[in-house]
Amino acid sequence: MLNVQTSEIENRAVKLGTTDGTKVHAKDVNVYYGDKRALFDVTVNIPDRSVTAFIGPSGCGKSTFLRCINRMNDTIPICRVTGKITIDNEDIYDPSLDVVQLRARVGMVFQKPNPFPKSIYENVAYGPRIHGLAGTKAELDHIVQTSLEKAALWKEVKDRLNDPGTGLSGGQQQRLCIARAVAVGPEVILMDEPCSALDPIATAKVEELIDELKQNFCIIIVTHSMQQAARVSQRTAFFHLGILVEEGATNDIFTNPTDKRTQDYITGRFG
Amino acid sequence: MTTERKSLLSGFMPWRASRSEAPAVTSKAAGPQGAKGDLMNEHIVKSYEEELALLDKKIAHMGGLAEHILGQSFDALERRDPKLAEQVVKTDKQIDQLERDIEEQVISMIARRQPLANDLRHVMAALRITGDLERIGDLAKNIAKRALAIAHESHPKPLMTGLRHMGELALSQLKEVLDAYAARDADRALAVWRDDENIDSMYNSLFRELLTYMMEDPRNIGLSTHLLFGAKNIERVGDHTTNIAETVHFLVRGVNIIDDRPKSDDTSSTLFSQG
Lengths: 271, 275
Prior knowledge:
The complex is a heterodimer. Chain A is of the alpha/beta class.
């Protein structure tokens, strides 16, 4: 009994030790779409095991920056990225880096739930299988179950794992996509407006899930809902016209922002 | 009525006579101003902007009424005027109603608008200030009621003068802090906050004076006790005024005042035996 307690305390200490570390570090990041410059010298540190929210009006560059973190922008031919982004001090734009491996480490959830047109089971099992994470069927079953549990979906789908994923409700589909992202054991999860297509109940479930996932992952969320950013994140970054205007503790940003542009935006005064 | 009030006030509170505008509204309409003092843009949603302006208008109205009855309560006490005292009680009901109004509006704004940043501080400040003003109204009512109790006592001039000075100071502080709110001026609020010390020290000396007066002749105890409670009420008005000053500072700067306020009310530890 005593031993259990001691190891629990140790575990907690280990966790605490890693909480304030920087997971993702960006320095002077610029993004160009052809001749058009979309991001201007973005420098930011994103801590591990916490939720960081990116807010800002449409076209401000927040999604563009999010997509730099798992090199999704590589898929756009005219897009050019300069500057440096590291995850655990490792340069993710290093030419020798395997982009597929990077995307396993940095999962992504999109605005519209986009499950594969396959069964619920296959949606989650697909990633671990192609990355060779499971040797046996039993191991794969285990990964599928724990991933669905982490995404708070297991109880709702455990009796119909072979039904098509597209048959689930919108909120369930989004949690299925989160389970799919979690299944490959990522370190960072990027979420691009994950709740904008969901009703308030489904939104609350996803937010509760984000809150739980932050114990183990570095989560970055882009959202248009100021209230959502205020509810789920520990840190908030405000982008405007491609510039990172202000970044700080969520509490400070929403009660006493230092920059007038931030204040105007979050209070609904942008002219 | 207005002229009567003016002449009444001109003797009692000289600065009041010069203010010819309606007594109920003290503050200039508060323009929407930025947290850092620069001019704010307007809300995209006009009705939101209007609600915030309405909140300030109600606070200004309530503040004006509180100032008004506080002045009247001093007059009532000095002149032992039961009619004036009744008026104070009546106006205080209006203040209570305004407090309920403002509370309701703030709750509804939080529910419907989810205000953030300076807007959040704005509605929270309104909620806190309305509470302090309501208490100030109650204290004025309490002072006025004492006018009835001491109606037949003798009239010790030096004591009344002391009380009047203290009242004047508390009233000018209240006016100053309401103007600081309307102008979103944190420095002015800070000055009010610091100056409360003066009210405290006046209360101290008045406390000692009344104590001596009671010791001289036990027949003075009745009157002196009422005046002492009156003085204590004024001192409490000063405390609520400092609360408002703190709120204004928080509203404008987004941080609480961290200094220790100079305190000079030591009556709670004053001994009764002499020597």
